[in-house]
Design goal:
By secondary structure, the chain is of the alpha+beta class. It has 13 helices and seven strands. The protein folds into two domains: 2-211, Hypothetical protein, domain 2 (Endonuclease III, domain 1), CATH 1.10.340; 228-323, Nucleoside Triphosphate Pyrophosphohydrolase (Alpha-Beta Complex), CATH 3.90.79. The strands form two sheets. Strands 2, 3, 4 and 7 form a four-stranded antiparallel beta sheet that branches. Bound molecules: iron/sulfur cluster (SF4). Iron/sulfur cluster (SF4) binds at residues 154, 157-158, 195-196, 201-203, 206, 208-209, 212, 214-216. Iron/sulfur cluster binds next to α10.
């Protein structure tokens, strides 16, 4: 343990770490659509979509989004409701609001081109320290290290100590490869996502095993807090080729302004449902029931089936309408 600990704290150890990690990344990186391009807009979009979202969910939305909004200028000119419609199903809709606002700012203040420097990137809505560093390094090869949840876990295990705040950024910068900054940042995040896993790190497959202080012996992350459970029931009222929908308030904390089926509340009684399924949103697991029949008397409107794909629907409503073969 002592020897390994010493090695990773030397320049030679850090050089070995960089070389092995990059070599592993070149041969093992996942084939993801945003890795085909260094276009700053593509990198930016993928980084925003990947925040708190699984890679598999992002792949489908990323390609659809770029097809619909191929450039920053096009995105800036588009209506927010169209952006939300394409974002539907990906969750955390505040990201879509910010992306749209940032596109407008890029066109107005930066001539339609995303700036390369992290400091300037951070003046844009929805871009914080991590995202600015990721875009700057991946799209522009700026020499700046990143720290996200995956990087934090790898660093703490490799160095064998708990790190917080600025200590993490300094540790990332010390190990960082200035020569291939974008690749290095992606490589360390990829290691955390595919090998140095939170609960069961695959140390035998790890390219930096012999430089790692803990080798998976410590720092296994506990399961996060239990998900909350909730039952919810919606009315699916479909008449003459139209569906009755309600719009969420503009000031709602979740999914403001998006369209959904009306909720049915039946105190002390389970409504008779046509379909039930499970659906998770952030920290809540819902048991969702859908009752076919007249909608409750709430403020809403009838939407023709042909308009539905263009409307910003909540992911849950889209799921129900798909299951009912309405869209
Ligand atoms: S050896 Fe194990 S704990 Fe250390 S970095 Fe690799 S996967 Fe993580």
């Amino acid at each position: 343990m002592q020897k390994r600990q010493l090695l990773i704290h030397t320049e030679r150890g850090r050089g070995l770490f960089r070389g092995r990690l990059l070599h592993w990344y070149d041969g093992h990186k996942r084939d993801l659509p945003w890795r085909m391009s260094h276009d700053p807009y593509h990198v930016w979009l993928s980084e925003i979509m990947l925040q708190q979202t699984r890679v598999t969910a992002v792949v489908e939305h990323y390609q659809r989004f770029l097809k619909r909004f191929p450039t920053i200028e096009f995105l800036a000119r588009s209506r927010l409701s169209s952006v939300l419609a394409v974002w539907s199903g990906l969750g955390y809709y505040r990201r879509a609001h910010m992306l749209h606002a940032a596109a407008k700012k890029v066109v107005k203040e930066f001539g339609g081109k995303l700036p390369a420097r992290p400091g300037r990137l951070r003046t844009l809505p929805g871009i914080g320290r991590y995202t600015a560093a990721a875009i700057a390094s991946i799209a522009f090869n700026e020499p700046v290290a990143v720290v996200d949840g995956n990087v934090k876990r790898v660093l703490q295990r490799v160095l064998g100590k708990t790190l917080t705040g600025e200590e993490l950024w300094s540790a990332a910068e010390r190990l960082f490869s200035r020569r291939r900054s974008g690749d290095f940042n992606q490589a360390i995040m990829e290691l955390g996502a595919t090998v140095c896993l939170p609960r069961r790190p695959k140390c035998l497959l790890c390219p930096v095993l012999d430089l790692c202080v803990t080798r998976g012996a410590e720092g296994r992350e506990e399961k996060t807090a239990d998900q909350k459970k909730r039952k919810i029931c919606y009315a699916l009222d479909c008449q003459d080729g139209s569906v009755f929908l309600v719009r969420r308030p503009e000031d709602a904390s979740l999914m403001p302004g998006m369209w959904e089926l009306p909720e049915i509340c039946v105190p002390n009684r389970e409504p008779k449902t046509w379909m039930t399924f499970r659906h998770s949103i952030t920290i809540t697991d819902y048991l969702v029931g859908v009752a076919q029949g007249p909608a409750p008397s709430v403020k809403g409107c009838w939407v023709t089936k042909s308009r539905l794909p263009k409307l910003p629907l909540t992911g849950l409503t889209r799921k129900i309408l798909r299951a009912a073969k309405i869209i």
